[in-house]
Write a structure and sequence with these properties.
Number of domains: 3
CATH architecture of the largest domain: Up-down Bundle
CATH topology of the largest domain: Butyryl-CoA Dehydrogenase, subunit A, domain 3
Largest sheet: 4 strands, antiparallel
Radius of gyration: 21 Å
Number of strands: 9
Number of helices: 12
Low-confidence stretches: none
Oligomer: single chain
Strand order of the largest sheet: 2-3-7-6
Distance between the termini: 54 Å
CATH superfamily of the largest domain: Butyryl-CoA Dehydrogenase, subunit A, domain 3
Helix content: 40-55%
């Protein structure tokens, strides 16, 4: 049994969270922090760290213990993600997409699908992610063109997905397809398959990015890919968009927690630097201009955390939480961008140097304003839910 799983079975909820966070923090300090700069600048996949994540049980973080997972609630999971993102955000991406896939199976899969896939997901033996985005379909998922047509006991899938996290290193993906392209409304013709790589299903290329290094983003190509009907999520056509949107609630909580972690790292480094860097005969922390920046950074970070934990608690209660998750994702990701920029200004030339992590925060932060639904769409989701929940 892995270290965190031992803790999970030995502690009550409050003690458990503290022990798990302590275990993660020790791993980060010992095995991650010393190697981040090298892996980041080489854009190298962290194979050794992934093996350590398997040992810690992190690939089963939110998977039910009945299937070998840790069964962490979303609140504890968010705190774990924040802690990891403070050290290297890319590692949280390797977990996030994988656990969204697992959440889709856990929530929508048949009993047979849960028994077949979740134990392998939990150990990290079978890792992967979510195949939604296409070259001409991002926010508008109903515009996807990837097609699955029935052929006897199988389906045959053709199409292309892009910007898929874990696309190169992952082996299994929850893939959103059209099973009835003529259906109206469009979502009734959408289904999801749990697809393992094989003949007709390949990753065509790794996509280069300005940030989010180490973790692989890729195009996935389906060319006559034959898959058993047993892999149709839930065993029923037409439920794919529902499964995707349900999984994205957890994904947006993850993004919000990442935003908190990155914003926290930017603030932490800025507070430390401002007390050691001197200008005009005193530390810059004593200059009002710097104090104004630090005060705003700290306040927005705390607000981001409260929004993130509020969304996580709603998720744990089993409530619909697209508004809460959208608020948390929107605010925390924008805070990460703002804190990273202010950190760069506080550090001056050193903030622009690759010798310091500030430039990495600055490159990583914008991704979170785009990933798991742009912040523009989050604003729309929030507004629509406000109106729906408050009819006149």
């Amino acid at each position: 049994m892995n270290v965190i799983s031992d803790i999970h079975h030995a502690a009550d909820d409050g003690e458990e969270a503290a022990l798990i966070l302590d275990s993660v923090e020790k791993w980060l300090e010992r095995d991650v922090r010393p190697h981040v700069m090298r892996l980041e600048h080489a854009d190298e996949y962290p194979h050794e760290m992934v093996e350590q994540m398997k040992e810690l049980g992190l690939f089963g973080a939110t998977i039910d213990p009945d299937y070998g997972g840790l069964g962490l609630n979303a609140t504890t999971y968010a705190r774990v993600i924040e802690k990891i993102a403070e050290t290297w955000m890319s590692l949280t991406g390797i977990m996030n997409s994988h656990l969204i896939m697992a959440a889709c199976v856990q929530r929508q899969g048949t009993d047979e699908q849960k028994s077949r896939f979740l134990p392998r997901f939990a150990t990290g033996e079978l890792r992967g992610g979510l195949g939604l985005t296409e070259p001409n379909a991002g926010t508008d998922l109903q515009a996807i063109r990837t097609r699955a047509r029935r052929d006897g006991d199988d389906y045959v899938i053709d199409g292309t997905k892009t910007w898929i996290t874990n696309g190169i290193e992952g082996a299994c993906f929850a893939v959103l397809v059209k099973t009835d392209p003529d259906a109206e409304p469009r979502h009734k013709g959408m289904s999801m398959f749990i697809a393992e790589k094989g003949p007709g299903f390949t990753a065509s290329k790794k996509l280069e990015k300005i940030g989010y290094k180490g973790v692989d983003s890729a195009e996935l190509v389906f060319d006559g890919y034959r898959i058993s009907a047993d892999n149709l999520l839930g065993g029923v056509e037409g439920k794919g968009l529902q499964a995707a949107l349900g999984g994205l609630e957890l994904g947006r909580i993850n993004i919000a927690a990442r935003g908190c972690g990155l914003a926290s790292a930017a603030l932490r480094d800025s507070v430390a630097y401002a007390q050691t860097r001197e200008t005009f005969g005193k530390p810059i922390a004593q200059h009002q201009a710097i104090q104004l920046k630090l005060g705003e950074m700290a306040t927005k970070l705390q607000a981001s955390r409260l929004l993130t934990y509020d969304a996580a608690r709603a998720y744990d209660r089993g409530e619909r939480c697209d508004m809460e998750a959208g608020m948390a994702k929107f605010f925390a990701s924008e805070t990460a961008v703002e804190n990273s920029l202010e950190a760069m200004r506080i550090h001056g030339g050193y903030g622009y140097s690759k010798e310091y992590p500030i430039e990495r925060y600055f490159r990583d932060a914008p991704l979170m304003c785009i990933g798991e639904g742009t912040n523009e769409i989050q604003r729309m989701i929030i507004a629509k839910q406000l109106i729906e929940r408050n009819p006149v």
